[in-house]
């Protein structure tokens, strides 16, 4: 039976569409493609990547655009392409297999599967000749040593199922001492000289920064704050940050944050916007405020697609990595003239030898300019010149979870920066996301160009969006946001919670496509785990709803944190968001309810700026929300009621009294 033609042209993933013209007869992961493998009794060649992945492009150009590679692949395999961002469930299953077989993972991920989906050989990037040899070897093994293949795939499947059991039951109690232990363990891994944690390559530790800020607010110890300042400053002044247009690249290939892997992801920038806004709001640091404002601008200027936000900008432009962003001294002089060009080269650390390839340099800003007006003129001139270069491709896919992270970050930044349009952008995104990504009452994972894909929403989609909606409810008082958030939480509790292990969660719904293993990854990675995100949403919602639902959400939040406390004890660097949620939980969490005559209350504004990260803040007339039940203004003055868990202080009517009650400085 002849293989089906390439079908990726109809995909809702830009990554898959990039391969629509390949001579390889790529299929999407569908029942039809899997059935074809069974009919042909042919192994599956599964290739997993994402649109902004540099090495995915390299392997595509070397191998997947090659007629001789295609001839072998089409004849011997059913070839399936998967966008890991659209199908993180598939990516999780087969990445675990790849790591189990090779000891490491990455993208592009290359897996060979039996027709029923069991992996028997996995790897990542292969150069063309090595890939051709691999195709021949796998095909020969499939034909002549089938029993060995079946036995190996059974062993891998068994190992994956064993790994899927996750953490052991039981762990230490969620209490301040556990948080203190986790913080100290994280700080021991800090690169004090260069900022960040661990060695190169260095990824932006956004969840760790948020957790350390909350630890500082709880304890008053300068140690976690100092680490935030060192890392936040190093990243903001290094090449990983776009010194002209704002926004962070995916990671730094070196320990000094100089040379980035140039793709820019929505999730990184949303999470870092939240962390920098929190740092600025708590300390007043002008660098933190500037980076937060510029990162918010990057989201709105470069990643916006109507009301919602696209997934990424590519690392490459016309096949050349970083070419849009790097400069030589001569190029600076050509744009700016001799005087400004020399000044800019010194300011941005652009040298004749270069910090990147072919004598070019990535722009850094190691110190603030001594002439702000001159700097702005130079920045705009370079930005205009850069806009004439070939620009990186855009991954225009709209991912629900990452837009949920952006909603939360923009809403919180609107308070920190006192920029109401950021809240407007967050509310607009949330409305369109709810209108478009909920189909037949259930949340979908992604869309492209207004067309919603078939991929079902996973746990992180429900949780991240719910937290964003709860943030909007607190800032606007609109009941609709709370109702939509609790709808998502109820679906999550019904379809994603593990009925046999309270507090444990699956990443896919019980009525989603049944894979070889049902993913349940509790570790925070470049984005927080779905389980840690749902813990955050449940913890917040438990204090915003009626008593019956409050008890249900509160118990689920407590069980979720308790079931994962071992991560904070054993692997806190892989549990940054868990630590942030735990920091909020051990403080009660803190709740501030401001009884006010209207939305322009100065005391309510002060409460939002003073409250620690993870605190719940609402305002409005008496009985306008669960936290304001029976709580009214006092003697004609707005009044703030501060509670820790279910224990409440006497109300206060001034910002300074409120700061004292919260344990922060005005």
Automatic annotation (TrEMBL):
<dbReference type="InterPro" id="IPR024705">
    <property type="entry name" value="Ssp411"/>
</dbReference>
<feature type="domain" description="Spermatogenesis-associated protein 20-like TRX">
    <location>
        <begin position="6"/>
        <end position="160"/>
    </location>
</feature>
<dbReference type="InterPro" id="IPR004879">
    <property type="entry name" value="Ssp411-like_TRX"/>
</dbReference>
<dbReference type="InterPro" id="IPR036249">
    <property type="entry name" value="Thioredoxin-like_sf"/>
</dbReference>
<dbReference type="InterPro" id="IPR008928">
    <property type="entry name" value="6-hairpin_glycosidase_sf"/>
</dbReference>
<dbReference type="Pfam" id="PF03190">
    <property type="entry name" value="Thioredox_DsbH"/>
</dbReference>
<dbReference type="GO" id="GO:0005975">
    <property type="term" value="P:carbohydrate metabolic process"/>
</dbReference>
<dbReference type="InterPro" id="IPR012341">
    <property type="entry name" value="6hp_glycosidase-like_sf"/>
</dbReference>
<protein>
    <recommendedName>
        <fullName>Spermatogenesis-associated protein 20-like TRX domain-containing protein</fullName>
    </recommendedName>
</protein>
């Amino acid at each position: 039976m002849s293989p089906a033609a390439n079908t990726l042209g109809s995909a809702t993933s830009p990554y898959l569409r990039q391969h629509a013209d390949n001579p390889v007869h790529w299929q999407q992961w569908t029942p039809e493609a899997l059935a074809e493998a069974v009919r042909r009794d042919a192994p599956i060649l599964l290739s997993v990547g994402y649109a902004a992945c540099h090495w995915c492009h390299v392997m595509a150009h070397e191998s997947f655009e090659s007629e001789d590679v295609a001839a072998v692949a089409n004849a011997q395999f059913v070839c399936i392409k998967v966008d890991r961002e659209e199908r993180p469930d598939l990516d999780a299953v087969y990445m675990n297999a790849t790591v189990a077989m090779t000891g490491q993972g990455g993208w592009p991920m290359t897996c060979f599967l039996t027709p029923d989906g069991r992996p028997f050989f996995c790897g990542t990037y292969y150069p063309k000749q090595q890939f051709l040899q691999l195709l021949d070897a796998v095909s020969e093994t499939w034909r002549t040593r089938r029993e060995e293949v079946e036995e190996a795939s059974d062993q891998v499947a068994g190992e994956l199922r064993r790994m899927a059991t996750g953490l052991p039951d039981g762990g230490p109690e969620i209490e301040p001492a556990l948080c203190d232990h986790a913080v100290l363990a994280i700080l021991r891994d800090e690169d004090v000289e260069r900022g960040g944690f661990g060695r190169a390559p260095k990824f932006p530790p956004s969840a760790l920064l948020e957790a350390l800020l909350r630890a500082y607010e709880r304890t008053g110890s300068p140690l976690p704050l100092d680490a935030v300042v060192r890392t936040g400053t190093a990243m903001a002044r290094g090449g990983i940050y776009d010194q002209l247009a704002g926004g962070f690249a995916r990671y730094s290939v070196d320990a000094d944050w100089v040379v980035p892997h140039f793709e820019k992801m929505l999730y990184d920038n949303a999470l870092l916007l939240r962390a920098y806004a929190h740092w600025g709001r708590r300390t007043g640091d002008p660098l933190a405020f500037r980076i937060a404002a510029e990162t918010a601008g990057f989201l709105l200027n470069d990643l916006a697609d109507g009301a919602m936000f696209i997934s990424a900008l590519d690392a490459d432009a016309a096949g050349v990595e970083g070419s849009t962003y790097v400069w030589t001294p001569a190029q600076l002089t050509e744009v700016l003239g001799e005087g400004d060009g020399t000044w800019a080269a010194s300011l941005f650390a652009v040298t004749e030898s270069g910090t990147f390839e072919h004598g070019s340099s990535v722009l850094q800003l190691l110190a603030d300019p001594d002439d702000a007006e001159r700097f702005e003129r130079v920045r705009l001139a370079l930005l205009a010149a850069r806009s004439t270069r070939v620009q990186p491709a855009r991954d225009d896919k709209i991912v629900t979870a990452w837009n949920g992270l952006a909603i939360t970050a923009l809403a919180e930044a609107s308070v920190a920066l006192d920029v109401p349009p950021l809240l407007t952008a967050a509310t607009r995104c949330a409305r369109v996301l709810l209108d478009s990504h909920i189909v037949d009452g259930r949340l979908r994972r992604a869309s492209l160009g207004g067309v919603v894909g078939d991929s079902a929403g996973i746990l992180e989609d429900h949780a991240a969006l719910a937290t964003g909606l709860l943030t909007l409810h607190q800032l606007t008082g609109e009941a609709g946001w709370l109702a939509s958030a609790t709808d998502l939480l109820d679906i999550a509790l019904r379809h994603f919670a593990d009925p046999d292990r309270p507090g444990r969660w699956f990443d896919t719904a019980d009525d989603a496509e049944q894979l070889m293993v049902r993913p349940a990854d509790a570790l925070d990675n470049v984005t927080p785990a779905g389980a840690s995100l749902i813990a955050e949403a449940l913890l917040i919602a438990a204090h915003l709803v009626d008593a019956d639902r409050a008890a249900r959400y509160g118990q689920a939040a407590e069980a979720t944190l308790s079931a994962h406390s071992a991560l904070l004890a054993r692997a806190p660097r892989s549990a940054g968001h868990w630590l942030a949620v735990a920091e909020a939980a051990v403080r009660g969490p803190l709740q501030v309810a401001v009884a006010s005559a209207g939305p322009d209350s100065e005391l309510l504004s002060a409460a939002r700026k003073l409250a620690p990260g993870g605190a719940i803040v609402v305002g409005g007339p008496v009985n306008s929300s669960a936290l304001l039940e029976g709580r009214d203004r006092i003697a004609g003055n707005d009044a703030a009621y501060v509670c820790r868990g279910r224990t409440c202080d006497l109300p206060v009517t001034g910002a300074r009294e409120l700061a004292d009650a919260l344990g922060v400085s005005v």
